[in-house]
Amino acid sequence: MTKSIALAVLTLLIVSVSLPAAYSADEGTHDFRKTRWGMSPAQVKVTEVGTLTGEGPLPPYDLAISYKGEFEGSDAEIGYMFDADKLVLAGYAFTERHEDNALYLKDYEKIKTALTKKYGPPAQDTEIWTDETKKVEKKEYGNAVADGALVLQSSWSDPRTYVFLTLKGNGGSATLTALYYSSELNPLAIEKRFHDTAEGF
């Protein structure tokens, strides 16, 4: 468990963004990929066609299972987190690397467009400058993110799920993740905040 661990680590991300208040008009039959919140690990495994890359405990979750796959044409590590044998969190850690940091912004916008198509306009679409002295023009946002000076985050919700798309960086490298929380079963969602103790991926 390496990059998929980042999915759980990022659940502790603080970027001062509250959970969204907007709701999707169509809840659909699945909460994440082909799964529903509360499924057992065995049930989730039956639905997943990606290549299994890791399985084991990952505090604060009892179990994390990761797969190699893709979303919207982008390579990603797919993670599923369980509490008391129930699926409570899932998501994507996108694994494509770019020499040009501006391309991470394009990836972010592409995934945001896909999530907006499903959930509607973001309830929150936020730019967080962790270092106000490093503010730059939008054309330089890719480098600002990679340097850790800027975090971009969009968020959505429907009656069952909170979704957070986050682009952040550290040490010249950027990471894009999309995390899906069960609004009912995941205790971290109740906190209505991310808290980041990660030092990057």
Can you give a write-up of this model?
The protein is an alpha+beta fold and 201 residues long. The protein has one domain (3-186). 21% of the residues lie in helices and 36% in strands. The chain contains 5 helices and 8 strands. The protein is globular.
Q: Record the strand order, biggest sheet.
A: 1-2-3-4-8-7-6-5
Distance between the termini: 12 Å
Determine the fraction of residues in helical runs and give it as a percent range.
10-25%
The total number of structural domains is 1
Strand content: 35-45%
Low-confidence stretches: 2-27, 190-201
Count of individual beta strands: 8
Give me the oligomer status.
single chain
The biggest sheet, with number of strands, parallel, antiparallel or mixed sense and barrel status, is: 8 strands, antiparallel
Shape: globular
Output the number of helix runs: 5
Structural class: alpha+beta
Radius of gyration over C-alpha positions, nearest whole angstrom: 16 Å
Instruction: Encode the helix/strand succession as letters.
Output: HHEEEEHEHEEEH
Averaged pLDDT, please? 83
Summarize the helices and strands and which ones pair or pack.
Elements: H1 3-9, H2 41-47, E1 51-58, E2 61-71, E3 74-83, E4 86-94, H3 102-119, E5 124-129, H4 141-146, E6 150-157, E7 161-170, E8 173-182, H5 187-190
Antiparallel strand pairs: 1-2, 2-3, 3-4, 4-8, 5-6, 6-7, 7-8
